[in-house]
Amino acid sequence: MPVADGTDATPFPLAMAQEGERVRISLLRGGKGLEMRLTSLGLNVGSDLLVSQRRGNNLVVIRGETRFALGAGMAQKIMVVRLRGDSGWSNNDAADP
Predict the structure, then answer these.
(1) 0.70 cut: is pTM over it?
(2) Is residue 78 one of the residues assigned to a domain?
């Protein structure tokens, strides 16, 4: 269901996102250790990502000028929502905390 912030409100695992899709992190489900690891890398709740590549179940996502390679297990624990349309997103916008 679309909401006012330009997202589709139904969260799903990042592992299910398609190549070229723009998403926003809505929840980290892996416990405190994983949450701390991801946030130290800059992948925190509210971050906008672009799914750059899919290789099997592994993903490469872009946030700002940084690319992250994520395994299937980690991507399954990152819940995201789709960004609708262009929604004003640019690669530079993804650098915001």
Answers:
(1) yes
(2) yes
Our CA dihedral for 21, 27, 32, 34, rounded to 10 degrees, sits at -10
82 C-beta neighbours (distance < 10 Å), count:
20
Q: Are 29 and 96 in contact (CB under 8 A)?
A: no
Domain that holds residue 28: 12-85
For residue range 51-97, list pLDDT tens digits in order: 999 998 899 999 999 999 999 999 999 999 999 864 444 444 444 44
1, HSE (Cβ side, Cα atoms, 13 Å): 1
Answer whether residue 18 is part of any domain. Answer: yes
17 part of a folded domain: yes
Residue 96 lies in a domain: no
SS3 61: strand
Q: How far apart are the two ends of the chain, measured CA to CA in Å?
A: 25
Of 93 and 29, more confident: 29
